[in-house]
Amino acid sequence: QEKSSRLSAALFGEDCEISHDQLYELLKYAALGRCHKATKPRWCRIYHQSHLAGVVVIVLCEMSQLHFYKFYLQFKHLRKVFRHRFTLTPSANFLASLCGEGGNPKPQNNAQGLTSSSSECVPKTSDLQYDPIIQKYGEKKQGLTSYTLTLEEQRKNDYPMKGSPGCKDYVYTECDEPRTDSSPLFGLDCEMCLTARGNEVTRVSLVDAQGQCLMNELVKPKSTIWNYRTRYSGITKQMMLPVKTRLPDIQTRLKKMLPRDAVLVGHSLNGDLQALQMIHPSVIDTSLLFARNEGRRFKLKFLAKAVLGKEIQSEETLGHDPAEDARAALELAQFFIEQGPAKVAELNLEMLLTTDKLAETSQNKAASQPQGCSIQKQLNGTPDLPKPCFLDCLQVTGQKPLLLGRQELDSSGLQRSNTSTPNKQILQRALEDVPLSTFSIIQFTLGPEYVASHLLAGLCEKVRRKLTDMLTIYAGPFEESFCLKSVKKEFRRCGPIQCLTVVTETNQPYVCVQYEVLEAAQLAVESLNGAEVAGSCIKVQRPVTAAMLDCDVLIKELELDVENEGVIYVAGLKKSLTETDLQEEFSQLKDLETLFLPKDLQTGKHRNCCFLKFQKSQSAVDALEVINGRNVKGSKLRSRNALASGHLWRWIQQMNHSNGKQGGNGSYETREQLSDCEQGLRREVKKLDRHIKKIYRRLQNNTLCVVLFPGLN
């Protein structure tokens, strides 16, 4: 659900099932866009992708469509806000393609370490021509002016420029003298805190070409600070209390300090200049200088370690040191200029990054395994490399993606397992960090007591029984000699019948009708209760069981579900009518958008009902009045508001045709235990729904948010 309603997905009925590749396609295009050659999704449309503020994927681990409909009433916010829902086709592991779980074949080269000089790490000279650094700069050494960003590169990477929208009040450094290869380099880095206005600069560092720190100032923002982001910025409330320096003071000092031919160096420097609200004409961006394929970017922490052999942004220190980051970016640029593109390409940074990730993954696995198991794996050789994942494609923003839950990213962008963090703590971090990230994956988990196979089997059986009861009606009493054929004909006008049997245990005969769709059963209750059928005035009702006591509430909620808005159900059609016939028959209905004619999953034949989707809710209301008041080709039609969306309809069909386990064989103790677990699970679901509500409210406008129910398999 996108907050400005810019996502359009015209899938309906049986088309509501999508593959994981299609979802992957949507997420990649939303995150990267056309400028990074991401393919437009064919099954839906994102309007104004460039305006997207971010993408958020919330994963409810171990939960599936079974949980959604078992606890449908508990998912209040999820049902209210998220308009588009799709069934995902089975996949080996969709989360693996997002988060990088699993592995792929071993590389041909085994690098000896992040700073190894082994010849095995060095690519052959013939391979260098395919290196993105060589393709961009060539092999020869060049002066620094060859590595400054062009105006087109600055525009493409969102650098503040003269005349650009939103830069009207920005301060120009007035460094207008022509640059030469001997122009002075200055490293710049800023740290930001979250305020009522968004990200505002709170610390600025500037270093000269010799690494001397010329400025390391705290800055008091205009607006109240909401989140100090101490884990990243290193800034605390106590540090900011005595600060009087404001942004205009910093802008003035920078203008005075920078020579007229100064070249600024930084890692994703566009973000720093935007925060400073300053325009500088000549910059070297090390996140772009050390080029990668597909627009990806290396992290500053990784480059400092791999190229300079320096450790920065240590986990042991509180937040980043902007002077340290500015100095690292400056030294990286100096190394590139002095050594030249060929020497940099020979470092084989992609291989070093893969090796670094592999080492991190192996350490995490070893830490969580018995010592003997770890030793045995070492004896067996190097484990498989992590599978290339979606997160690795998101370096284009210059910011690391946010991954919270079962897997998390450390400050260097490497994954580490984290299975013990409670959902409440994950929520707290999400509320703080998600609004600051352009791509986030948040994974909430259920406790181990809620994923036991016997509990899931029990839930599945309960849902199957409840759906069966909701599809079933009892009607009667009838005369002893009533005409079963005419009764069946009357009830079939409400929709396709799964089976019809005569109940003989009562004093007078009744019939039990099980329909294939929820709307048919509800239509029978609404239109035939108290009606005269086969010469008898009958009562029509659903089975009365403990699980059915809230049936009326559930039916009402299904009818009001945003996914069913503007959708009506029509029954009593002749089976000989094709979709083309129906399109022509209903063409006079105003604002008709889509028609869905269900088919039997086994035979493929059309049923005697259809669903109509209208562009406007009022048009659907008007259509109900028209259809319920007329005859079509001699067949009286009946219609009502839709209850079951396409994916639910398919799921009901599958449940009807599945051979679910029959209940009634468990002991009293087992049933009691299941009931206790179910009550606990219901409470957990309510909490998760509130978590999603809180995260959603914290999102910026124009944020695409996806919630996944991946199930156990």
TrEMBL record:
Superkingdom as given in the UniProt entry: Eukaryota
Q: What's one GO-annotated cellular component? A: nucleus
Its keywords, alphabetically, are:
Exonuclease, Hydrolase, Nuclease, RNA-binding
* Sequence ranges assigned to domain RRM in this UniProt record: 471-545, 566-644
Q: SUPFAM superfamilies from the xrefs? A: Ribonuclease H-like, RNA-binding domain, RBD
Question: What's this protein's name?
Answer: REXO5 exonuclease
Which Pfam families does this one have?
RNase_T, RRM_1
Q: Where is the signal peptide?
A: none
Give the encoding gene's name: Rexo5
Q: Which GO terms describe its molecular function?
A: exonuclease activity; RNA binding
Which organism encodes this protein?
Centropus unirufus
Question: Matching PANTHER family, A to Z?
Answer: RNA EXONUCLEASE 5, RNA EXONUCLEASE REXO1 / RECO3 FAMILY MEMBER-RELATED
UniProt-listed CDD domains: REX1_like
